[in-house]
Amino acid sequence: MSIKAIKAQTGFSYSTISRVLSGKADAFRISTITREQILEAAARLNYRPNILARSLRLRKTMTVGLIVSDIQNPFFGELASRIEQDLRFHGYSMILCNTNEVPENEEFYLKLLVDRKVDGILIAPIQTAEWESMQILVRETPVVLVDRIFADTALPWVTSANVEAAEEVTREILGRGYRKIAFLGGPPETHITRARFKGFRKAVVETLGRLDESFVLSKGYTAQAGREMMIRLLDERPDVEAVLCVNNLVFYGAVGPVNDFELRQARPVMMAGFDIGEYASLMKRPLISADQNLAELARSAVGLLLEADAGAADAANHLTIPVVIARHRLP
Amino acid sequence: MSIKAIKAQTGFSYSTISRVLSGKADAFRISTITREQILEAAARLNYRPNILARSLRLRKTMTVGLIVSDIQNPFFGELASRIEQDLRFHGYSMILCNTNEVPENEEFYLKLLVDRKVDGILIAPIQTAEWESMQILVRETPVVLVDRIFADTALPWVTSANVEAAEEVTREILGRGYRKIAFLGGPPETHITRARFKGFRKAVVETLGRLDESFVLSKGYTAQAGREMMIRLLDERPDVEAVLCVNNLVFYGAVGPVNDFELRQARPVMMAGFDIGEYASLMKRPLISADQNLAELARSAVGLLLEADAGAADAANHLTIPVVIARHRLP
DNA sequence: ATGAAAGCGCTAACAG
DNA sequence: CTGTTAGCGCTTTCAT
């Protein structure tokens, strides 16, 4: 009823009105007087185009979906925020979907987004490989993986230099004289845990000759998992001197038990983790954080997706972003 | 092209196919054999309805927008997550918009959501009153305010019992013998800051007879603001004994300076704040946290919105949810 | 129990 | 420079 209303007011046709309203007046050399009348009527009637109708007609929604596993995690909060800003800069809106680390939700949202005819999907997947229905959906809509990725896939992805970062942090810990060093991981088959453990193991094996398996735990990416792993570790290996946590939440979960332990034993435990970022200032303890470059991760992911959307040949579509090591309260 | 494809395969008409596919087969007493053929063809062709077309036709998108000020804040992360779950339970999707505490973005997103024909909007506003263009937009789409609200508005809202919670926390601090107690607020004209300060002042004045204004600061809701306020407070009133922070981020920003101060002065400062939640376990310090009931806040907000969407008479549409006081590392 | 046809609001040939 | 018209994919009277 809306262009129609302007038509009723001004007497111009659908096409002319549509042209003026979507900024194509110049291209069609619409007369100034006509433009003015149309724009005036539009303003007066408070005209707003119906995006649904436009999208249906153009087969383009100017919307992309972002699927993350845990929006309560400030890491994903920042990632989502940055991606949204980048997308908005390019004229796209974002629909944010939160799977809460539940694999079934991943399929649900993927379908939802495809049904909504989004122009593309960014996903930090929970699952460890392309599942069946994903294969089908992906044929319709460009998908880019970010942060968490599948090891072997033709899909474009962008992730951090996880192996290198974990190795560097571990070497730093070893360089400070700690020997009994543990790793608290997420689900063992996930890319992030595998990559970070790989770097950790490399540094330990190359420095100490061997890795003591009783120092390696893996359970999940949540604070709850971190807490449980740490309690178990301190119980089974009370001689532990340092620990590397696979992500921020595992670190946050582990801190409590470590604090208690230190009080009882009067001996500090060195802690390190990924993406502690700002939250390092809450703690009085020394710590090392490998902070991913979220700005770059977001920018690259959006870049890859928009390229894919524009139908670009998938050239260099696998990107790895360096990680920055930050030392807190350390000499 | 999609119902059309099934039509081509089965020979049935648009109407019959549409009826079967949208579960109205019983109502129209479509014969079993027909249903089977249609469903079989749909499955084979991997049919998915075009939501855009359906929404355009039905004038209903089954989507609501949520506008928050800072999605990097785990508080809003949890709020968004809970609201999304509740909405999903009722069959709605959610578009999440992040204003980053920038007022202009608020208007931008409000327009965007209205243009997208969302069925309703939930918003935790930055601004302190209904601004002009909001008035217009709101005529088209139901809006419910959550957490941050406007003091005097006919719009439905749900918020926490902020005055009472702040008062209770302050009395608890005073009851523990602290006298020189400060308040770190957000922007002074915002509802949350006003309400929490009101409770704080009431407890202080009733207990001590008067409130020393040099213990009251207000700047913003970010960690940066919290840090700056705390540094200034410790500089100007180094005799301060306790501090109540208006929200979690202000608390997080304030912790660093307080830690340093305590080390220098060998005297502890009691800290309290809102919605510290899980993050309390990161810190070794005693603290008091007034934790909002996010589950209930989310549930109520969604309830009010769906009622408004259903066109219910706006009966009791202003809800206040109790807050829980949590003591950490305190006798 | 099924079909024909109109219309949601918009854009883009095509026509002048 | 402007207008006519078809059609995006779906739902829904109104017929039969």
What can you tell me about this protein's structure?
- The structure is a homodimer of 331-residue chains.
- Chain A is an alpha/beta fold and 331 residues long.
- The first copy, chain A, has 3 domains: 1-48, Orthogonal Bundle (434 Repressor (Amino-terminal Domain)); 53-160 and 294-322, 3-Layer(aba) Sandwich (Rossmann fold), CATH 3.40.50; 162-292, Rossmann fold, CATH 3.40.50.2300.
- Helices cover 47% and strands 17% of the residues of chain A.
- Chain A is built from 12 helices and 12 strands.
- In chain A, the strands form 2 sheets. Chain A has a 6-stranded parallel sheet with strand order 2-1-3-4-5-11, sandwiched between helices.
- In chain A, β6 (181-185), α9 (191-208) and β7 form a beta-alpha-beta unit.
- The longest helix of chain A has 18 residues, at 191-208.
- Chain A is elongated and about 85 Å long.
- The mean pLDDT of chain A is 95.
- The first copy, chain A, binds a DNA duplex (16 and 16 nucleotides) through residues 1-4, 12-16, 18-19, 22, 28-31, 34, 49-50, 52-59.
CATH architecture of the largest domain in chain A, by name, is 3-Layer(aba) Sandwich
What proportion strand of chain A? 15-25%
Q: How many individual helices of chain A? A: 12
What would CATH call the class of the largest domain in chain A?
Alpha Beta
Please state the CA-atom Rg of chain A, rounded to the nearest Å.
26 Å
What's the rounded overall pLDDT mean of chain A? 95
Per DSSP E runs of 2 or more residues, the count of β-strands of chain A stands at: 12
**Structural class category of chain A:** alpha/beta
> Strand order within the widest sheet of chain A?
2-1-3-4-5-11
Distance from first to last alpha carbon of chain A: 69 Å
Point out poorly predicted stretches of chain A.
none
